[in-house]
Amino acid sequence: MKSRSQLSRRRVLALTGAGAAVAAFPFVRPSFAQGGPLKVGLMLPYSGTYAQLGEAITRAIELYVKQKGGALAGRQITFVKLDDESEPPKGAENTTKLIEGEKVDVLIGTVHSGVAMAMAKIAREAGLPTINPNAGADVLTRALCAKNIFRTSFANGQVGLATGKAAAEAGIKTAVSFTWDYAAGKEMIAGFAEAFTAGGGKVLKEITIPFPTVEFQSALAEIANWQPEITHSFFSGGGAVKYIKDYAAAKLGIPLWGPGFLTDGVEAAVGAAGDGVKTVLHYADDVDNPENKAFRKDYTDAYKVPPDVFAVQGWDTMQLLEAGLKAVGGDVSKRDAMFAAMSTASFKSPRGPFDISAAHNPIQNFYLRELKGGKNVLIKTVATKFSDPGTGCKLAS
Ligand code: BEZ
Asked: Which domain holds residue 174?
């Protein structure tokens, strides 16, 4: 019981069957037990600004396993959930709790780029299969890429580049960017500026406020003074709800654009205040493929709320994990073979085709969408099979 009792009961939200087995036989790792369950650690935010993102990812992950009868590649799956609170200073300690304390076989996490960077450092040293279902910190699949770390979401810069390209192609010439001051916001507005400028646009001003602040009024006044053709903003989760409402209430008369994290998952909460917000993302509610139709129906039937991009990323995390597990017959101790299979994985996602780059980041389509009547309606495909440059990644895969 030693390792378990060291954990914060408040943060370890759920332990299931395999957890009980570990408690009874603390020195036997489940992966070595013949046919025993595979213990998957979910390190995600279940409280704070990004709580609903963590919940959406978790729901899709659990739905995937349920649809497979509770097992992947012949291994029963059990989960240990840990609330990382989107707190970067706690990232290393929380990761260690799952790897050393809970002795998880596979690690899935997280949402916040700052937490993910702390997590990746520990996971990289531990070498266990690790899948990042959201956090976009560029370095994770650029200079700090790792053999055992895969991402099923995006790189922040990749989304920023696609958004800047879409804005320039729409003929927009001036923008003000406004975001939270941490890796995600900074890298998205940097990518936006690069592509927007290359397409003939000009970023008049970049404004930041600390994460997770939601005091937007002085920035909105500053935007009004600049009079750009558009405002370009990254906020997400609870922060996005307040921002979209505050932006609409300010009646600036300046169209609001952003990466799609601004509107995904908050459609109902923002209501009519969100109508007309244009965003770019690797997902849109009405991506026209059978995988998306089935996913949206099954998820909505199961949870009585529609899925969003975060749920799609959770779903694809399990598609990638299953591809790796199948290659090794469920034996995660065969790490090289498992990582080789994951490195070349290619599958059909609700978002469209999903391939993985040499740096372990998705190669995917990006869509321009407009929020209308509670749906992120697809306007056009902005980039097809678009890859992050993976600059500085030295993996041989
Ligand atoms: C990030 O911190 O990387 C992030 C958080 C929420 C949405 C998108 C990116």
From this structure: 157-281+368-386
